[in-house]
Amino acid sequence: MRRVTRWAVSQGLRWLPHRSAYRVRTFFEKRFYNATPVVHDLPPIFHYWSNRYLRPKFEQLGFSSPNHFFETELHRLAKERTEPLTVVSLGSGRCELEIELTQSLRREGHEVMFTCLDLNSVLLEAGKINAKSAGLGESMRFVVSDVNRVSDLGQHHAIVAAQCLHHFIELEAILDSVHDALTTDGLFLVSDMIGRNGHQLWPEALEVVQTFWKKLPARLRTESHSGRVLAEYDNISYADVGFEGIRAQDILPLLVERFEFEVFAPFACVTTPFVNRRFGWSYDADSEVDRSLVDQVATTDQKLLDSGAIKPTQLVAAMSKGSASRKLSSTVWSPRESIRAPG
Question: How buried is 62 (Cβ within 10 angstroms: 0-12 exposed, 13-18 middle, 19+ buried)?
Answer without folding.
Answer: middle
